[in-house]
Amino acid sequence: MNFKHMTAAAVFAGLIAGCNVMGTPLPDPRLSGRDAEFMALAPQARVNSQFERYLVDYKTNEPVGSIIVDNNAKFLYYVMPGGKAVRYGVATGQDAMAFTGRAYVGGMQEWPRWIPPKDMLERWPHLQPTADAGGLPGGPDNPLGSRALYLYQDGKDTLYRIHGTNEPDKIGQAVSSGCIRMRDIDAIDLYNRVKVGTKVVVL
């Protein structure tokens, strides 16, 4: 490349394009029916560009089709063939509550019902009426968002989830009670790629 006759801005743009630092942006999944209806009403927020959805280079010994969550970096990777992965930005559990280890997807739900867990009720008693009513139906204001993947170990529900969120502005932060939160559109995209039995590794 001959830099002599190029402006500084053009040189910078060329270098950035050549490096492809962020990876390749991926399109949103197509929405229809209830997804289109609820997503039009769901809370929206811009996230830092690094936490958007990209196809990236990614080396791992885990098999294709695995989910790997990096709690520190706030990224979730879905392992693809050819040394690639789909990378999503996530919000993770606060330090004392974050899940780590190996698990697998033991269940999957679209627009799941949310029932406050016991430990949450102890911290926030004002949620007891929601629990008594059988939980909050799935919808755009539900804390579990558009999708939920239920994490299991040895045939037992860990009570940890990978799920959407009604607080997309928190992506990139350690704020949850232990679950891994995704933007609703990203939760739908991941849901479309996985199946019951998918391996999950949380670092």
Automatic annotation (TrEMBL):
<keyword id="KW-0378">Hydrolase</keyword>
<dbReference type="Pfam" id="PF03734">
    <property type="entry name" value="YkuD"/>
</dbReference>
<dbReference type="InterPro" id="IPR050979">
    <property type="entry name" value="LD-transpeptidase"/>
</dbReference>
<feature type="active site" description="Nucleophile">
    <location>
        <position position="179"/>
    </location>
</feature>
<keyword id="KW-0573">Peptidoglycan synthesis</keyword>
<comment type="pathway">
    <text>Cell wall biogenesis; peptidoglycan biosynthesis.</text>
</comment>
<dbReference type="GO" id="GO:0016746">
    <property type="term" value="F:acyltransferase activity"/>
</dbReference>
<comment type="similarity">
    <text>Belongs to the YkuD family.</text>
</comment>
<keyword id="KW-0961">Cell wall biogenesis/degradation</keyword>
<keyword id="KW-0133">Cell shape</keyword>
<keyword id="KW-0328">Glycosyltransferase</keyword>
<feature type="active site" description="Proton donor/acceptor">
    <location>
        <position position="163"/>
    </location>
</feature>
<keyword id="KW-0808">Transferase</keyword>
<dbReference type="InterPro" id="IPR038063">
    <property type="entry name" value="Transpep_catalytic_dom"/>
</dbReference>
<feature type="domain" description="L,D-TPase catalytic">
    <location>
        <begin position="65"/>
        <end position="203"/>
    </location>
</feature>
<dbReference type="InterPro" id="IPR005490">
    <property type="entry name" value="LD_TPept_cat_dom"/>
</dbReference>
<keyword id="KW-0012">Acyltransferase</keyword>
<protein>
    <submittedName>
        <fullName>L,D-transpeptidase</fullName>
        <ecNumber>2.3.2.-</ecNumber>
    </submittedName>
</protein>
